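Incident log, structure service

09:12 report received: a user says their structure output differs between two submissions of the same chain.
09:20 pulled the input from the user's history:
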Amino acid sequence: MSIVLSRDSQVRVMENTVTNAEKYFGQFCSLLAAYTRKTARLRDKADQLVKQLTDFANTENPEMRATMRNFAEDLAKVQDYRQAEVERLETKVVSPLKLYGVHIKQTRAEIKKFKQVQKNEIKQLEKLEKLRQKSPSDRQMIAETSVQRASVDASRTTHQLEEMIDTFQKQKLKDLQKIFSDFVTIEMVFHAKAVEVYSSAFQILESYDLERDLEDFRAKMHGVYGHYDARPLKDTMPSPAVPWALTGQNAQTTIRSQRRDEEESTEHSAEEDPVEDLRGQGQAPQQ
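09:34 re-ran on a clean worker, output below:
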C-alpha cells in the first residue's frame, strides 16, 4: 500500500505541473494578445496623425509645408515598422501560446489513464485483504496473482507517465524561453528602427526655417505674392538595409485602414481581457 501512496504523491506533482502550465500559459496568451491589439490600435492612431499632418501641411507656407510633409513621411515609416511588429507578435508569440492547449489536454488524458490503472491496483489490494480474513487459501492465491498483475501494470504505466511528464516539462520550459526571446527580439528591432527614424524626424523639425515662412506670410498680408522654392521633400523610399521589407506607404495605409474597422469595434472594451482558456485548443505547439 505504501507503493500506491508513493505513486499517488507522484501523480499530484504531475497534475500540479500541468495545472500551472494551463493557468499561466493562458494568462500569458491573454495579456500578450491584448498587448498586440493595443499596439495595432496605436499604429492606427498614428496613421490618423500622419493624415492630419499632411492635410495641415497643405494649408501652410512653403517651409512649414515641406517640413510637415517630410515629418509625416517619417511617422508613416515608423508605422510600417509597427505593422511588422504586430504581425510578428501574432505569429511568433500569440499563436504558439494559443496552440499550447492541445498539448495540455493530451497530458491530462494520460494522467487520467494512469489514475484508472492505479485505482484498479488499489481495488485488487482491498479485495486481497478481505480474502485473507475470511477465504480459503486457494482463493487468496488467485487474489494475490491479480494484485501482482495490477501492480505490474501500474509500474509500467508509472514509468511511461514519468517519461511523458518529464518531456512535457522540458518542452514547456524550452517553449517559454523561445516565446519570450522572440518577444524581446521583435520589440528590440522595432524600437531600434523607430529611434533611427525618429532621429531623422527630429532633425527635420530642428532645421525648419521660421523666419523664411514669416517673411512669406508678411509679404502676403501686404499683397505681395512672391514665390521661392521651399526645401525639397525627402526621398521616402525605404533603405535597402531595413530588416523588414516595407511596401509603399499608400499600400500599407490601405491595409491598415481595412483592419482598423475590425479592431476599433473592440477599442472600448474593458481594460482587462479575460484569461485565455487553453483547454481544448486545436493544435499542438510548434517545436
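09:41 both user submissions now match this output. Likely a transient worker issue. Closing.
09:42 reviewer note: The chain has one domain: 1-215. The mean pLDDT is 79.
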